Amino acid sequence: MEWLSVFTPEAAQRLAENHKEQLPLKGTSRERDFHPVCKLFLPWASATWLLTEMDDDGLAFGLSDMGFGTPELGYVSIDEIYAVKGPGGLRVEQDLHWTAKHPLSQYAAEARSLGYIRA
Asked: What one-character-per-residue DSSP string does 95-107 give?
C-alpha cells in the first residue's frame, strides 16, 4: 500500500469514512453528494482527480480529467495512478493547498461544460 503515501492522513481517513457512509446508500435516492476530500494531479501532465471516497484497497470514486477534454465521474485505482512515473521519478501528488467549495456534482457539471476540471 505504498500508494497511501499520496494522501495526508486526514484525507485518507475522510475518504475511508465517506466510503463507509456511502456504501449502504449506493444506487438509492439517499446517495450522498460529498464535497471532494482532495485533489490529486500529475505534476508533469494535465491529469487531475477530485476524490470523495476510497475503499481499503485504493479504489476511489470521484471526478477524473485525463486532459483529453472528457472529464468523467467514476472509480479509479489509486494503485494504478501511483504506478505511473513521470520525469525524474515524479508521481501523482495531492494538492495540499486545495479545499473543495462545492459538492462533486457541481464540479462535474462545470467540468462537462468546460471540457476540463476547474478547481
From this structure: -TT----S-HHHH
What are the pLDDT digits (tens) for 66-78? 999 999 999 999 9
Sign of the CA dihedral with 34 first, then 23, 18, and 93 last = negative
Q: Which residue, among 110, 114, 7, has the nearest Cα to 60 in the 3D structure? A: 7
Q: For a pLDDT cut of 70, what percent of the chain falls above it? A: 100
Quickly tell me which residue has 476540471 as its cell: 117
CA dist 4 and 24 (Å) reads 24
**Angstrom distance (rounded) from CA 51 to CA 28:** 20
Look up the pTM and report it.
Answer: 0.95
User: N- to C-terminal Cα distance for the chain?
Assistant: 27
Question: All 3 cell numbers of residue 92?
Answer: 501523482
Q: What 3-state DSSP class applies to 46? A: coil
